[in-house]
Amino acid sequence: MRSPPAWAYFLLRVVRNDGILMQDDKYKKLIAVMVCVGCICVLSVFCSLLQLQNMKHMENRMTFMENMLLAMNRIEAGNRSAEEVIRMNADGSMEAGQQSAEADVVEVEQDINMSAALGKNAEEEEGIIKIYLTFDDGPSIYTDDILDILDKYGVKATFFVNGKEGYEEQYRRIVAEGHTLGMHSYSHDYSKVYADLDSFADDMYTLQTYLYELTGVECELYRFPGGSSNNASKIDMTRCIQYLNAKGIRYFDWNVSSGDASGGYKSADTIALNVMSQIKALDADTMVVLFHDASGKSTTVEALPMIIEKIQAMDDTELLPITDDTQPIQHISVHE
Fold it and tell me: The domain 110-335 is classified under which CATH number: 1.10.8.50, 3.90.226.10, 3.20.20.370, 3.40.630.30?
């Protein structure tokens, strides 16, 4: 059996109060030093643990406060009127309605010949024409047919939809197949959407929420019913544009129109001719083509394969869905 180490033997004699050790002042001093060092070590460990616990408690409190502030900001943002949102974006701060009319002055530039002037983008890839097929007013009885055609040709498009019951699967299919989902007002009722700015904001929020609940996509693209240059709105369209800007939502008009919603019946050949003649005449790197996905638009579906085949046969041309990188085509430009 192994004998205990010397230090253990020494401590044992100290504990037993061995007279030999205690009679020597040298050993008394050594024992006192050892006791002091031990106490200091224990105290240091205790203080370190206490400090660590306090730091963790403070971190939890800070996280809690940050979450509370975030929740309060979200609640406050939801309660703001459309006018307040615009004022906050222009100002950077909220001054409870004491903003003068001069702060709301905007410069509006509207090009009369939109088709000839829109779509220029110096940052686009040189020599590449980018064409975006867009469909308004859906979903409809023809949405699945349109999606089938796009899938057959390997093309992704953009759908500016309304809020409709009974088409839940079509909304989800648009997203699932890689197309872009955009907003086109919930009701598409001009008298409601354009009654005043708050009505416009409420309609847009209703559609945005509806689409998010169905698809999980929080839409940040918008197309005005009738376009930004429509003549039906009772409010200045620049106010709507400012509101969208304040919310971080981009809006898109078009610079190529299929004509499928104007002047009654249009044959598939007429629709295809309308689109291709404008594409060939338009001097632009970005072209946004307007179609309608609605009941009574069967000839739009019939024209789609012809149009896609002709575009795909063109040199240096791409068919793409609208993304964050797409140059906006806008009939009205607002400079604050």
Answer: 3.20.20.370
